[in-house]
Amino acid sequence: MKRIIIKTLKILIILTLSACASQRGVQLINLATKELPSETELIVTTTSPVQYKDTKLDNPPCLMLSFPEEKIFSGEDEELLINKGPIKKIKNEYYQRGAKGGRQLNFMVIELTRETPYSISSNGSSIIIKLESPEQTQSEPKKQMATTEAAAPFKTNNSNIEPGYIIGPEDVLRIEVWKHPDLSGDVLVNANGEIKLPPIRKMSVMGLTAYQLEEKLTEALSRYLIDPIVSVGVKEYNSQRVIALGETSTGIYPLKRKTTLAEFLAQIGGITKNADTFHIRLIKKDGQISIYDMNELLANPQKSEQIVLSAGDTVYVPPLEMSKVFVLGQVKAPKVINIKGKLTLVEAITEAGGCTEDAVTRSIIIVRGELGSQQGIRINLRRIIKKGDIGQNVELKPGDIVYVPKTFIADIERFLRDIAFPLTWYYWYIR
Length: 431
Prior knowledge:
The chain has nine helices and 26 strands.
């Protein structure tokens, strides 16, 4: 009889363990929301990390989390009213229904009040969804903010982190550790690219993005806290700066993300009416100078995307007065011409009224370069006009001098002696 009882108990234990195994899965522990000035966070916490898939839905705008490879059991209500930031409510859908805590969660639908950008990431056993909060509706705060930024362009108070921004010295970070206000606050990145955050004595953050720093801080704080949830934002962008000079809003401006030359000029208010849009200079930190035609960049977005600014760059927008060509000699109206876009030799001579009857059109001279290192280019205008040799119709550059002689030998000798000596000559003359 005793043996029968023992055998029965063993069978019952096996059946109990089998039943528990059949119900084994991940438990949904908590749903929490955190509302920040620029974003709202929804934190879904489970007993262990889970695989998820996020899908954006329309009409009404929703974000759906599904768990195709996980068995998640939940005791949460089927519908939760949140009304925080853009989150209106959360609906939980189940595969099956049963006792409290025994319902298997199929997917979670987060209903939003409006379309909004979002990011989603895993942090240990938590899924963190960050949703951009609604913009300010009052016009006065916006106006005040714009005035403040215009007065001090190198200081930007904005906790809305831009994706891909690289943290550097003098940046001010806003670090928040959920449920640990003693560890939260503003932290300055020192000149060595390090921060101090108790209980962590010192940590290098140079070259990290905010999201990378969140992961690094989470790992470091895990030695002292259980499943810490860390949020990092950039409060002041001070390390990645670009200088703007010339016919634009001059000043020192921070780069908050990957920014092209065209985007940068648009962000700081554009350029003035007197700006030479065809010869905008980008001076890199190493001294390399490139000249760009803004009209061409706007017409060719693919090329514009390749002109990216970096810390230490200087953008110079020259005035139109600096882009001049001088047309002298045997022309009907010698003059100074402002270059607006591209200007060829024929166009310059035409604007100067054309050549006189005494002009030697087969020996026109273009003087180019700085004093003492000029280059002389000899052009046969006759071949351009009579034979259509467009290769002779060169494009002029700012500072060029176009000289049309009267008699070849006498005028050339006087020109070399009085105006343009010494010159390095490039003969483009074709007999």
